[in-house]
Amino acid sequence: MSTPQPPLQHSEFDHRMAVFGSDDEWIAAALPFLEEGLAAPQEPPPTVIAAPAKLDLLRDALGADAKAMTFIPHTDWYAGSAANAVSQSAGYLAAHAGPGGRIHLLMEPDWSGRAGRSARETAEWIRYESLANLLFAPFRTTALCAYDTRTAGSAIVDAARRAHPDTPVYEAPARLVGELDALPLPPPPPGADLLETPDPEAVRAWAVARGLAPAEAGLFAAAVAEAAPGPLADGALLWGDAPACVCELRTAARVDDPLAGFVPPATAELEPGQGLWFTRQVCAYVDIRDRGEGSAIRIQYA
Predict the structure, then answer these.
(1) What is the C-alpha separation between 45 and 36, in angstroms, rounded?
(2) Quick one: CA dihedral 22, 115, 82, 270, positive or negative?
(3) Using the 8-state DSSP alphabet, how is residue 68 labeled?
(4) Of the residues 3, 93, 191, 280, which has the fewest C-beta atoms closer than 10 A?
(5) CA distances from residue 141 to 128, 191, 267 in whole angstroms, order as listed
(6) Beta-carbon neighbour count of residue 72 at 10 Å?
């Protein structure tokens, strides 16, 4: 892919990071942030998204102040892909933030063993953390991303530091996301099926034959149809079995916007016609790679 555009020179979004390794350190990091939010003018009370046990600790530490705040288990918030988290955050700001998106959000990503995040999932979440600096730049939101070294681990914490502007190792999204998008993808398997004209009905029938339920196969087919920005250069390759059905589209048009498919559309309803946004909301992974004249878009359902 060509080099993404540089980040905005000015951002209203205040994106911070806290690293801790004990319950006492969690409380020490969280309380000043939440007190800052309670004192901020034109803001609703802060919202905390964290592990249930950490929410209980905060309620005890906050005392009466806890009644004004919103507490959400992070297993409810981070229930899908990174693109789903973008949608969740944008919807929450629209419904609950003050003027201009003013609100303090204390957010702990779910890095626990229950989440079972693979190296690939981890890379997608770091991408989300980096792109948040662009996606939410116009909003006067203050977010503190909490990383517990007991669950996240040093490699994840080190990578996340590069996505937060308040750390000394911060990298602009153009650089960090460009690194991720430069990583080569494994080649399609030799037995991949080629569809010269991947119309939705043909893709749906293929996915049903590979074990996806008809409703899921329909979603996958719609996601494939929404992904291509223009004419295909070489048709579509499909491989894998349910639920990990994969389609790779090789397009004549280049997709070089790092935010492609991450910017919420005007309508909050998920429906066909929203392009890569629809694809990213429906599928677990959407990888885009430059192929010289055009792009390769690889879509994995789950």
Answers:
(1) 10
(2) negative
(3) G
(4) 191
(5) 16, 48, 22
(6) 17
Is 93 within 8 Å of 139 (Cβ atoms)? Answer: yes
Query: Comparing C-alpha atoms, which of 89, 71, 120 is closest to residue 284?
Result: 120
- Residue 128, CA distances (Å) to 30, 131, 154, 203, 282 in order: 22, 5, 18, 29, 16
Neighbours of 132 (CB within 10 A): 23
Measured from the Cβ of residue 30, the count of other Cβ atoms closer than 10 Å reads: 24
Q: E-strand spans in the chain?
A: 14-20, 47-50, 70-73, 103-107, 141-148, 193-195, 232-239, 246-251, 285-290, 295-300
Burial (CB count <10 Å: 0-12, 13-18, 19+), residue 10: exposed
In this structure, the dihedral spanned by the alpha carbons of residues 126, 171, 265 and 250, taken in order and rounded to 10 degrees, is -70
Is residue 133 within 8 Å of 11, Cβ to Cβ?
yes
Q: pLDDT tens for residues 95-134?
A: 999 999 999 999 998 876 544 567 777 888 899 999 999 9
Name the residue among 101, 104, 100 with its Cα closest to residue 65.
104
Amino acid at site 282: V
Q: What is the separation, in whole angstroms, between the first and last Cα of the chain? A: 24
Strand ordering across the sheet containing 14-20: 14-20, 141-148, 103-107, 47-50, 70-73
* pTM of the predicted structure, to 2 decimals: 0.87
Residue 138 has pLDDT above 80, yes or no: yes
Pairing of strands 14-20, 141-148: parallel
Distance between CA atoms of residues 249 and 236, nearest Å: 5
Q: In this structure, which amino acid lies at residue 151?
A: T
* 224 token code pair: 């494939």
Q: Any idea how long the chain is?
A: 302
Distance CA 208, CA 229 (A): 25
